[in-house]
Give the backbone structure.
Amino acid sequence: MSLLKEPDFGTPARDGAATISLEVDGLPVAVPEGTSIMRAAALAGVDVPKLCATDRLDAFGSCRLCLVEIDGRRGTPASCTTPVADGMVVRTQTPKLGKLRENVMELYISDHPLDCLTCGANGDCELQDMAGTVGLRQVRYGYEGENHLDAVKDQSNPYFDFDPSKCIVCSRCVRACDEIQGTFALTIEGRGFDSKVSPGAGELFMDSECVSCGACVQACPTATLQERSVIELGMPSRSVITTCAYCGVGCSFKAEMRGDELVRMVPHKDGGANEGHSCVKGRFAFGYATHPDRKLRPMVRDNITDPWREVEWDEAIDTVARRMLDIRRRHGAGAIGAITSSRCTNEEVYVVQKMVRAAFGNNNVDTCARVCHSPTGYGLKQTFGESAGTQDFKSVAQADVIMVIGANPTDGHPVFASRMKQRIRQGATLIVVDPRRIDLVRSPRIEADHHLQLKPGTNVAVVNAIAHVVVTEGLVDRSFIAERCEGFDEWVEFISRPENSPEAVQSITGVPAADVRAAARMYAQAPNGAIYYGLGVTEHSQGSTMVIGMANLAMACGNIGRDGVGVNPLRGQNNVQGSCDMGSFPHELPGYRHVSDDAVRGIFENLWGTALLPEPGLRIPNMFDAAIEGTFRGLFVHGEDIAQSDPNVGHVTAALGAMELVVVQDLFLNETAKFAHVFLPGASFLEKDGTFTNAERRINRVRAVMKPKNGMHEWDIVCRIATAMGYPMRYDHPSQIMDEIAALTPTFAGVSFDRLDEVGSIQWPCDEDAPDGTPIMHMDSFTRGKGRFVPTPFVPTDERSTRRFPLILTTGRILSQYNVGAQTRRTANIAWHQEDLLEIHPHDAEDRGITDGDEVTLASRVGTTKLRAKISDRMPTGVVYTTFHYPVTGANVVTTDNSDWATNCPEYKVTAVQVALAHPIVREQEEHALDGVLAAELVD
Ligand code: SF4
Ligand code: SF4
Ligand code: SF4
Ligand code: FES
């Protein structure tokens, strides 16, 4: 349980030692230089009345409620904007101040609806609180004069209302949108009495630039901006701190409850990853957890053409165990396996891989990270020795140059994007390497210094060209390399070859050589250069090579091992880091230790009491191939919709259709469940106890706010299946699973639920040497000892545009939807994105007679689908782009099974396609009809 109302110190904390001593109302206090009197007073235990100040925002000084008197100074300065001075003596409560504050409050209240008892914010309104605090007893001016009480409500946003009649024009919302979110969607229009908050140029919220992050709602001290759920359900009465179940940023939230009902999710101020900020998904899109589509009873059927039959848990578990054992008896242990989920907790993932290794008797376990960040694990392990990002998110605040490669943080990792944009607004320079003109390239107060708009599939050529410039222009950090790295000379020989120069690769990459040179100099010469990347790096045939290439570049410039630098994957799913850490790969036990290592295997065999296979098992694509060949026959799919999310869907569904037993555990009957024989209902994150690990290796607690609606914990279901298969697995609580993980995994040695509850979150490695965790990795030496330079020759992908398929398709995500959309499509987020669209350049569209909104066919050599076109010059000519949030679009019907050479991560980002009007004949008829109308109009 946590506090519903967190303390607010009025202005942000200042860094540094508490060197300034003062006295507030007779109480001594010492604070760092630059601290406001208001904050010093709060730290001394004195609450100064305030309305326009909050400690998430810089002081503004508009409400004049926080006035104080200072000995030896004239007047009554605002305590929020006045910094402390040594020896200051401050008084916050004097008759004069009391009168002044009463006058201020009187003015506010005289223009405020007197509906406190029925107001949604009753009990959570700072105006109401302040009226009480200053002791307001009467309003002398009456309510008849000019006022704003009839101002019209804006209810266009599906999640919050804007009621301007209650606005006190404190500007907290505007500042939150500017300073925290960085969207600049709100302004204060007009002056004096006429001033009012306005989204955009007097638009509705939904028509403005607002991205519905909720920062303004949280900042608003009145009910002017208020969550609709609070208005409808009433104020929450308790709260539980938990972690968002959407993306790899891993934001902490207070789940605020009223009885058993979740009223709202409020970003937690002390959340290590988000520090009180959120995006629309975590903040508002939790309705899927109670959506009527959710299945709550286990179901079985003999054949996938049979109707489902609801059964009790015992029967469902027995069916899975019996049929898995039967397949194993008839076809051998290698014929069964499982896919773990990056949406589930570490503890759940751990028990699934343990079930496979100990009960199934093989290493046929893989994870959805196979299709996203497996190259990250491989590439960073090869070079740095650890399969994870190097920094914490805070580190970006120290970066001088930020290079974003193949990532779209404002859509994919919005809360981190807000941090990044704050730093860019402070003066850091930005290099974007992406085929698409993502929002970061140009958005309010943000402009990339370089946008290297490369052709899809040429990442490695670009990173090599950047490194070539660094090496040949003498920009390398020689002392860092000499002290901390190996393999440099061999790499230099490779990278300095003329074929890697920007000029030589220009025709391949499409990026002007001069731009590459300028970007390379900018990154190499910055005091701190940081690289952030996403699936636009990994989901390529050379995904692993590119990760290695970026690691080489960072080492060459000495940009590793301190704040503000590093190589940082922006992980996709909420627990993709954790699912990899937990031993979900067929070749690795928890902690990234190879199954062939006898000593490591021995540790697990001792604790698990069973022999383990030393050979790696099947990867997901191998499972599919083997299923089609008939040698792989039983699959347990945990919380993953492989029939929608994996490439070449036709191949995936053929494999699923060929299996004897497909078990799906999920919240919904997803696309994969169409091929399932057993459906095990899952629990939502609101019903789970456990941990998620985010992109900065931060282990966050997930805490249940309600019992599992399906009647059973997911970890318990898995343990029961393993037990029914003859390998007893039993825990009383997920904390015991974490204890076992910690006992077996050196990087988790110091992690336990108790410790997490004590300190909030921990970034692994957490062990004897780093009992509080490790925010920044490779500080004094690399995990593998010396950082290793590895040559990265560019090998073009086999997937090339041809006469038949002349365009290249690349895919990505949009802010309001998440991955295959199973959750977000079941929330009001559909208000922003009802269907996947195909972005196509105006020239390519014109060549094909396509106009905005036309239905088009998108065909590749493996499949065809239909969707609507959106004419956009964000893509260069020759490249089209879409999202994959809707099963009806089936964008992955067209993606091929090309994959990364090292990890089999699919090459989602490069597919040769053709685009054509879906209904050219109908269009012609429409045009004839339109001609007729125009002719008639002309005649009229
Ligand atoms: S919800 Fe977020 S983006 Fe929208 S106006 Fe408020 S702060 Fe700005
Ligand atoms: S909407 Fe709320 S936060 Fe914004 S100016 Fe009005 S009262 Fe202040
Ligand atoms: S940024 Fe990611 S973790 Fe944070 S609220 Fe949004 S979806 Fe959730
Ligand atoms: S709180 Fe200081 S002026 Fe408003």
